[in-house]
Amino acid sequence: MKTLYLECGMGAAGDMLTAALLELLPDRQAFLDRINALGLPGVRVTAEPAVKCGITGTHMRVTIHGEEECSEDASGHEHHAHLHDHEHDHEHEHAHEHEHAHHHASPADIAALIDGLPVSARVRADAKAVYALIADAESKAHGRPVSEIHFHEVGTMDAVTDVVSVCLLMEALNADQVIASPVHVGRGYVRCMHGVLPVPAPATALILTGVPTFGGEVQGELCTPTGAALLKHFVTRFGDRPLMRVDAIGYGMGQKDFERANCVRAFLGEAEGHTEAITRLECNLDDMTGEDIGYAMEKLFSAGARDVFTQPIGMKKSRPGILLSVICLPEEAERLAAVMLKHTTTLGVRRQDLQRYALDRQVSTADTPYGPVRVKTAAGPGVSRRKPEYDDLARIATENGLSLAELREALKSIPQ
User: Fold this and answer.
1) In this structure, what are the phi and psi dihedrals at residue 144, rounded to the nearest 5 degrees?
2) How many structural domains compose the chain?
3) What is the per-residue pLDDT across 19-33, written as a single tens digit (0 to 9) for each?
4) Domain span at 167
5) Which end of the chain is more exposed for a tag (fewer CB within 10 A), N or C?
6) Spatial CA neighbour of 289 closest among 345, 348, 350
7) Inside any domain, residue 416
8) Helix (H, G, I), strand (E, B) or coil at 19
């Protein structure tokens, strides 16, 4: 499975993600030419070599009408939260705001701008979805309707360039899954026009709701709203890098220097199997009949358990008992624990959150002389298996008066 893994140990910003993904392409200049030909007003994008802690990567430089500006991801109507994408931890101050008037763009203006770009429908939809995340977060942070959220003109063009660039790069790389590490957001406080805000900034924190994050020891803002929204939109799941054969590595550098390399690192390759989070629920039973335990197992399967099984155990006072185990997704654990408590005599359920190695699985349909048969395929590191679906075999065997062994023998010629 073609997999893109994003290592966000120093947070993420739009320009850092752009640079990291750009390094994965075989023809980087062709992509830069495409960005510069989109017709974004006054925008010019260049990729420059950058070194952090002795490691060479790429830093994206965006100029608007020949001038480089700090990106203001989004702000409320009264200029709250001026968020810098390219500065990546600089203080949120804009002295030039009092020197000349700013024009503003509403979310509808941004959507119209994106709709007018010569890009695919997929890229347009992705870019507008990313901006919707930012606008919604700013709306909640400032206590204003989304319709009253405005983006500053200069920062808008800078941020739009980052967002559209990442969306185009994701389309070009076309990974089957995008996985990211937990996101380092930094710690401390950052200064804005109206005071000092905690890190992560309120809009960033709202966007990252549900995403694994940590503060770490680095002082300052490491993840911007644009970076957070891009991760939230594109990442399939967050966790450790899976077992994969890496074909390309990209380093997207931030602007500021820290003791740690300030970069997003991107790995592109083929995942051979994967790791996934699961939960095991267990309880000991010594006062239920076999019929009652069987009924509880049926209820657990009906409620969505991935697996339910029993084991004989010895309990206190030398009593024989049954260990009832349930395998489920972490988000299903609380609901299934309630099912266990309702349909068994246990007084409590133990929970263990685990990681498991799993093969990549697919289900396809094969045409056979007996009609269509679903076939499960599993593949991973040095492993490839195919197996007809039991329910289909049982149905066909019954309809044709065959044993399962006879039918399996007849179906050995299923196309591989």
Assistant:
1) -125, 155
2) 3
3) 999 999 999 999 999
4) 2-272
5) C
6) 345
7) no
8) helix
